[in-house]
Amino acid sequence: MVLRRVVPHALLLAYVAVVLFPFVFVLFSSLKGSNVEIAADPFGIPKTWHLENYAEAWVKAKIGVYFFNSVYLSFTSALAAALLSAATAFAIVRMRFPRAGRWIYQTVLIGMFIPGNVLFIAQYLLVMNLGVLNTHWALFLPYTAGALPLGVLLLTAFMKSLPGELEEAAIMDGLSSAGLFAKIVLPLTLPALVTVFIVNFLGAWNEYLLANFFISKDALRTLPTGMVGFRDAFQTNYALICTGIVYSVAPVLVLYAFLQKQIIEGMTVGSVKG
Amino acid sequence: MKHPMRNPWIYTLFTVPTLILYGMFFLWPMLSSAYYAFTDWNGLENYRFVGWSNFAAAFGDPDFRRAIVNNLIFIGFSVFVQIPLIVLCALLIASVKRLRGFYKTTVFVPSIVSTSVIGILWGFIYEPEVGPLNRLLALFGAGPVYWLAEPEGALPAVLITNAWQWMGFYIVLVLAAILAIPRELHEAAVVDGANGWQRALQITVPLIRPLISVVVMLSIAGGMRVVDIVLVMTKGGPVGATEVMASYMVNEAMGINPNYGFGTAIALIIFAFALLLTSLYQLTFGRRMEGGQF
Question: So what's the pLDDT on residue B292?
């Protein structure tokens, strides 16, 4: 009987070890002095902590720049997509244009069935023709647009579940439809909005393909592409590369520590609905 | 007085920005892909229509055929190796009370980290001289294996990295479905004398079939979409060993001699494959599993 209790935990802890090992390894390596030290004892705790790696990577890798670019691009595009989806969902669900609403909903949902990389080259040409290649617009616009189908899907479902009486009461009080949206529906939709925002934010934060080909100026790069450039430039300095990895992973892990419920819910709900 | 919810100006204001962005970045690219795919446009002004020759050229290229096979290997690996492990892990997590939250939170972590960082991180683990994997093998007197530099080693290395990144996500998905099963069903089975394994295989797994079906669909879609991890870890090399359709497309279309006509033709092929595989699955195995809560 003891065995029956222990075996599941043993197997699960082994899996957890496989999941966590790369992170721990990178953290330890980032504090080691040289490749020799990493190679001699790849699994060990560093003997002396070489914290200067962190200062060096921050300056040499321009991680501060990439970091800022990633934060503000992810934040603005996630926010824009969440608000646009909310407005559209409100119009579809609450406003009295049923035929147009159905039509818009169906059209936007088609987007859920198109794999992202299928649109990649055509989007590149579009961004080039718009003249915004190599500016942050080249990422802001497709990130925002790319998040719309899921946002509209989730927020329409959520707004359908809000009671209709609220609307009647608010209109009696003389609110316009825009006022109703801003003052009543938006605050009530906040939980779903947070979920949509988080999914959008993580999507933009981690995006690599567009970021790699639509931006070639180093100062405009985001963390995923900046990190790859950093790795290619410092091929042989493993401690420094590991430091860069720690910098780019740590904020996501901190965010996860606080918002794990919303993050897990948002990511899994999104995928199943899609 | 007109009802405020019938105000066409507000309606326009609320829907048109979304429709414009969506039209620009989804519908227009789809249409223009369907147009350019039949041209030999390389980014300069003049181009001509070349009929189906881009498609013929793609399927005539052994590198592209290899990329198709590699996409199928990605799908096969996730369906036949990862999914059984995912279901097993989810069953194990559901079977314990203590530490359940810890397991769930921990296994999910890799799926929030960016693919490019994971590619860099694992590239380091596979590093031939100082990487921990080869150091571990050296303890048993094996190696060194040049994982990402040898055609035989590169594809398994990328497959395992990809599995490491996404398994936890699906475990959490399956776990939620398992935990949603009404407790009474299990209690009835216990009364009937079924042991843990019998209950798992005869009650839990059949009940979560609709969700497993969703996971299979997502794996097919994911296997068609895979590209970031390949570009970051191997760029499709060595000698095309890890090339997938999307990396082939990117390398052909965005290289030194860009060929957008050819690239968009590849994009349409990827799209057609994704539709074909998902509808094939739906028509054969998927339908039997439909009808659940998801």
Answer: 40
Residue A125 in contact with residue A200, Cβ under 8 Å?
A: no
CA distance A152 to B276: 26
Check whether A274 has a pLDDT greater than 50. Answer: no
**Tens digit of each residue's pLDDT (9 = 90 or more) over A109-141:** 888 888 878 899 999 999 999 999 999 999 999
Of B21, B28, B253, the CB nearest to A141: B21
**B145 conformational bin, left if phi > 0, alpha if psi -120 to 50, beta if neither:** beta
Nearest to A88 among B10, B15, B249 (CB): B15
Characterise B240 by phi-psi region: left (phi > 0), alpha (psi -120 to 50), beta (else).
left
> CA A8, CA B90: separation in Å to the nearest integer?
11
Interface of A with B in 133-152 (CB under 8 A): 141-142, 144-146, 148-149, 152
pLDDT at B73: 96
* Residue B147 C-alpha from the chain's centroid: 22
* Residues B245 and B273 sit within 8 Å (Cβ to Cβ): yes
3-class SS of residue B49: strand
Selected residue of B113, B115, B166, B251 to mutate for chain A interface (largest A Cβ count, 10 A): B113
**pLDDT the model gives residue B244:** 94
Which of B7, B21, B294 has its CB closest to that of A148?
B21
Instruction: Return the amino acid letter for B168.
Output: G
Nearest to A108 by CA among A125, A131, A84, A128: A84
Alpha helix (H) residue ranges in chain B: 8-22, 28-36, 53-60, 62-77, 83-95, 100-108, 115-125, 132-139, 151-179, 183-191, 196-199, 205-207, 209-225, 228-233, 245-253, 260-281
DSSP-derived secondary structure letter, A235: T
Three-state DSSP state, A130: coil
Report yes or no: A206 at the B interface, CB cutoff 8 Å: yes
As a whole number of angstroms, the longest Cα–Cα distance in chain B is 87
